[in-house]
Predict the 3D structure of the following.
Amino acid sequence: MHFEKLTDTHCHLDFPDFEADREVVMGRAEEAGVRRMITIGTNLETSRAAVALAERYRGVVATVGVHPNEVGEVPDDAYDELKRLAAHPRVVAVGECGLDYHYLPSRTAKRNFGAVAAATLAQTGEELALGLADGAVKARQEAFFRMQLDLAMELGLNVVVHQRDSWEDCLRIVGDYCGKLRAVFHCFGGGAEEAGELIKDGHLISFTGLVTFKNAPVVQETAARVPGGAFMVETDCPYLAPVPHRGQRCEPQHARLVAEKLASLRRVNLAAIAEETERTAEMFFRFPQPGV
Ligand SMILES: [Zn+2]
Ligand SMILES: [Zn+2]
C-alpha cells in the first residue's frame, strides 16, 4: 500500500529506553513510512532533551511541557524555562500537560493494601489524611496545567493533553480556554460520546496501540465513528506497543500498525488514513518549513 508519509504525533524518543539504539529505531520508522516524529517533553529535563533531538534530526520536532505525574519534582518557576524552550522554531506545541488521578495517594494506598485495609484506613482517620493529600496533588496538577494552557495561549501554540481518570476536571479546565486554543487528548481511550464533547469545541483526539488491543472495544468503536479530521496517529512509545508486539518496547515505526488498524476499523485503505491524519497533524501542529 503506497502512501507518502505518516507522523508519529506522540513519542518519547529521549527516554533511556532508546539510548542504545536511537538512530536504528529512527531508521526503522523511516522504512515503515513514519517519516516524522513529535517527541514530547514531560518535565524540564526531557523538554530540553526533546528540543535537542529536534535540532539534530530533520524528521523530529518537539513539544515542551510538564506531565501531571511530574509536577511534584518540577520547580514552581518552571514557566520561565518552558517559555524559553517553547519559543524554539522546532517546538510545535505545549505539553504533555493535564491531569492524572490514577496515582493519587488514596488510590495508591487502596491498591497496595486491598479492601480490608481500606476499611481500617477509614477507622483510623488515615482516610482523611489521604483525602487531604489527594487534594494537594490535584491542586498542584491543576496549577501546572493552567500555567501551560496560559503559556500556549501567549505563544499561539496548541496543547497536547494527558488525561487519566480525571475526565470531568480536565474538561472543566480546558473549557475555560474554549476558542482560545486547541488541544489534542492523546492516547484516547474513551467512547464516541466523550470524543464528541471534545470535537464540538475544536479539539482533537489521537489513537495509540491501545486501539489494537482485543479488550478495547469501546475505543475501537470510537475509532470507527469519529469524523475524519478530528483524529491523529501516535505511539506514545516506549509504552503501549500495538498487537502483535504487546508488552515489548514500542517504537515510532509502530505508528504504521496503529494506522493500519484505524484503516480496517474505518473500512478504508492505509493511504487514505495516512493522508487524512497527515493533513490533520499539519493543521494542528503547523510544522516548521523545511530548513528550519
Ligand atoms: Zn500521556
Ligand atoms: Zn506521553
Remarks:
- Strands lie at 6-11, 34-40, 60-64, 91-100, 158-164, 183-185, 204-207, 231-233.
- Residues 263 and 272 are 8 Å apart (CA to CA).
